[in-house]
Amino acid sequence: MQKLKIKNKNLFILITGYLLLTTLFFGCATYPRREEMKKTSPLQDKTFRIGKTEYVYLKDICKIYDLVWDWDILSKKLTLYREGLKIDLALGSSIGLINEKIVDLKDKVKIYNNEIVIPFSLTEEISKILLPLPIPPAFYKISRVVIDPGHGGKDPGAVGPGGIKEKYIVLEIAKRLKRYLENRGIEVILTRSDDRFLSLWRRTQIANRKKADLFISIHANSSRWSQARGFEIYYLSDRMDESSKSLAEIENKVLEFEEDNLPKENIALAATLWDILQTQNRAQAIRLANYIGRYIERLDWIEHRGVKGANFYVLRGANMPAILIETGFISNRIEGKLLSDPYYIQELAEAIGEGILSFKEEYERTNGFTR
Predict the structure, then answer these.
(1) pLDDT 10s digits, 233-262
(2) Strand order in the sheet with 77-82
């Protein structure tokens, strides 16, 4: 009996020692590996704590890992993807899917400081798939621009004296702007190249899926006051004067033409999320608008009425700096005729193009205006 007790005691010591060594080895080895991963992560300087959990902004994850995102307004799901990787997330949930496999994020995806934030643990899971991490494409390059000729098809846009239609004018300006930029090495994608109707959300989905660096929507203005004239540039903002508010209401009327129009509550939900995700792009959109405005001011035949904010639905969908240009008032007889003249349209397209090129040059030289 005594011999058996000794054997049991020795066995107990052996097992305890083994467990202790195992815990020390794997426990100590696991912790440094996680810390090392954080130290070598390109997001190491982007993390912050909310409570006990380390988080990172969604915009930083997308930028570092070269991810594109989509928001499904029906299922309220956020999808991040690139070649070989698809991530499904949901606000308020700590569970995600990476390439269809369930992943515990340790904490919930949430909104913080008016932006979507994600637990840092997600980046560890991404790194397992993408390691060794490729050098991300040049962050501070403007190489692809989506130009959106407003209206089209069953939506004529504004109609001026003599029956001139906005949809035709803006398409011609967009085509000329496309050629001008392409001749200077920028890839340009038109949301439409002929007379067809596109919903507002589809226009920006084109820009998002093509991973455009800039989104520029081209329009022509109209007013009940026939003497109204001039060129205006808009960025997305809920703060607007009465004139901008009225214009936004007019441009947003296109929603009435959309057969696949969404319930108002879904539009509001999607617009709110888009606004959160694109907040960081607003400052750059204003810069872009100002660069274009400087070149428009050099044209002696049109008045530049300035850069303004307005609540345009077509800008809410863009995941990049986005502006809407009102190229002139077709309700003004003189300006309407000029907007139908190929010579003036070409001058207008070139002025817009030069503004884009100047923005591009400064953006790339200063690493996105960070230095």
Answers:
(1) 999 887 655 555 455 554 555 445 555 444
(2) 68-72, 77-82, 85-90, 95-98, 101-104
